[in-house]
Each structure stands twice: as C-alpha cells, then as structure tokens.
Specification:
single chain; mainly alpha; 7 helices
Length: 191
C-alpha cells in the first residue's frame, strides 16, 4: 500500500491545471455527438500519440541509458513520465472514447466489442498494453524517477537494472498497439 501511495504522490508531480484542461478538451472532442469522420480522425490521432510516444521514449531512454552523463539519465527519467501524461494517456483516451463512439455509430454499440472480430482483437491488444503499462512500465518509470531525484551521485547499478526491466516490458507494450493498429486497419476475419 505504501508503494501505491508513493506512486500516486510521484504521479501528481506531473499533473497540473494544463493537464486537466487538455484532458477535458479530449473528453468534449470525443463526445458521441460529432460525425463519424471526426471520431475516426481522433481515433487515428490517439494511435499515433500512443505508438509514437512509445517509440520516441524507447529511443530517448536508450540514448540516456548508454550515456555517461548522469544529468541526461536524470532528465530522461523525468521526461518519460511527463511524456506519458501528455502523449500516452491522451492517446489511450482518444483511442477508447472515439472507438466507442464509432462502434456505436457503425456497429451497434457495445455488442460490437465482442461480436466484431477486429474490434474485439484490437480492444484485447489495447487492454494487454494497458496492463503492461500500468503494472510494469509505470512502476519502473517511477522508480527511475525516484533514483534520479535522489541526492548525491546517481546509483548507476540500480538505474541500469530498472532500465533493463523497462526495456523488456516496453518492447511488449509497443508490440501490442502496433499489432492492434494492423488489425484495425486490415480488419481480418479472426474468429
């Protein structure tokens, strides 16, 4: 329980009024009152934000991880969490909210999530991404941030250990949404 409360306190450092305004804007833009093409555009934007941020953060943390410069490691540990607040979470919100709006408009609503092959597969892959992100990546990122914030020299051994775990889970969390994007684009008969 203390680890969870510590993670929540750390996460609050990256949230502010601008974040809440942006998230409110996403909610309004994703209301099911807008035309289908609008929701499709926002859905695609969400995929770009999610996958793009995953790839950029992987490159950024890799460059920082191999750097001999502790300041780069510290900055990367902070900025990867910031990027999640500004890109990953909005990407997921845009994907989900606009996916629901499109499924309602074109495929009959919530039954489409299980009855339409590509929607069920895409949602399953997105859910798997969310589980890995929430239970593996975010805790690793917050641990990297805690190590980066510590006074004194950076504990490079601990940093490298956490970063290696982040790499392993990050690969999985990147493959899932890429596969989801392929499934949603190709719309194959799966079941």
């Amino acid at each position: 329980m203390t680890a969870l409360s510590s993670a929540l306190r750390t996460t609050q450092e990256f949230l502010g009024w601008r974040t809440y305004v942006a998230y409110s804007g996403i909610a309004i833009a994703s209301l099911p009152i807008w035309p289908f093409a609008w929701h499709l555009s926002l859905h695609i934007l969400g995929a770009v934000l999610l996958i793009g941020n995953a790839l950029v953060m992987a490159v950024w943390l890799t460059i920082a991880g191999f750097s001999a410069n502790d300041d780069r490691k510290r900055r990367a540990a902070r900025d990867v969490n910031r990027a999640d607040v500004w890109f990953t979470v909005p990407g997921v919100l845009l994907l989900l909210a606009n996916g629901v709006a499109m499924a309602t408009a074109r495929y009959g609503g919530f039954p489409a999530f299980l009855g339409t092959d590509f929607i069920a597969a895409g949602l399953g892959l997105l859910t798997a991404t969310a589980v890995v992100w929430a239970f593996r990546l975010v805790p690793a990122q917050l641990r990297l941030y805690a190590l980066a914030k510590a006074d004194g020299p950076l504990d490079r051994t601990a940093y490298r250990s956490v970063l290696n775990r982040w790499y392993a889970w990050g690969i999985l969390a990147t493959i899932f949404p890429v596969l989801a994007a392929l499934v949603m684009t190709i719309k194959p008969q799966l079941f």
